[in-house]
Amino acid sequence: MATTRPQCLYCRAAEPIDASTRVLVVLELAGTEPAGVAAALAISAYDAGQYVRRGGFQPHRMLEPDAARAELDRLAAAGMTALLVPESEIRQARVPRAARGGRFDGNALRLRMDEGPLIVGRNDATCIVRGPIVREYATSSEVRRVRAAGLADGYRIHLFTGTDTRPIELDPGTFAFDASERHAGSSLLELLSWIREFEATAVTDIDFKRLPPTLAPADEDPLVATASLLEGRARPTGKDSGEGPVVLDNLAQFRHYSGWRAAVARRLGR
């Protein structure tokens, strides 16, 4: 399949882009001024100030390849820095490799994956993305009962290694610690203490928490998933069973964010 090479503002970020897929234009706002951002993006001075205040990398537009390159040139002429990421690369983070359990031995993560054991050394991690997962029930026009309690929110940690576009996903809510592993406090705090051991050499992003949640039907109801785990069997959930409320979460949003942020890190090393 024919490929084209974008004229990226970062020479080391220039990589072949599959001409059959859309491309995400990502802005880098470090060192920009609100007035210039307002003019380049045709937004208000207030909104431009918020962009600059947040800083870092921010997704701009998802476009067809030719339109993305044209937008890149337009932004460069306006004094802004941007780079291109193929949508196909971002999609890889939507199907992460789930870590079912394991331990940290002080030098490496020893994880149990669906495909078998995996060891991740301190220098193997290249990018870490983590953030909160919001969960709630979908609003129904037919209210059958009053719910006494809502759903507990979750958390996800994505660990990228080498040039792999599929992250290792750690879910504190389902992670099974080895019997020999003693940890104080919550599962989340324990996993975060492990991950911090890798942050010295890996790009780390925790800005997902700043985004307004974009909710979609969850792949699995967390309450039913827990019950199924305890019972050792699979059970249908909300939208599939036709019974009970549909659970919404922003897990798909997190995985999309993780995908493009890791792609930027692979190109720029930051």
Query: What is the H/E string?
Result: EEEHHEHEHEEEEEEEEHEEHHEH
- The tally of domains stands at 2
Discrete helix count: 8
Termini Cα gap:
30 Å
Give a count of the beta strands, DSSP E runs of length 2 or more. Answer: 16
Any idea what the shape is?
globular
Low-pLDDT segments, ≥5 res: 1-15, 223-240
SS-based class:
alpha+beta
Major beta-sheet overview: 8 strands, mixed
Helicity level, as a percent range? Answer: 25-40%
| Mean pLDDT reading | 84
Instruction: Please indicate the percent range of residues in DSSP E strands (runs of 2 or more).
Output: 25-35%
Radius of gyration, whole Å: 21 Å
Please give a structural write-up.
The protein has helices at 34-41, 45-54, 65-77, 87-91, 187-195, 222-231, 238-241, 251-268; strands spanning 3-4, 17-18, 23-28, 57-63, 81-86, 97-104, 108-113, 116-121, 125-133, 135-137, 154-161, 168-170, 176-177, 203-205, 216-217, 247-249. It is an alpha+beta fold and 270 residues long. The protein folds into two domains: 3-91, no CATH class; 95-268, no CATH class. Strands 6, 7, 8, 9, 11, 12, 13 and 14 form an eight-stranded mixed β-sheet that branches. Helix 1 packs across helix 2. The two termini are 30 Å apart.
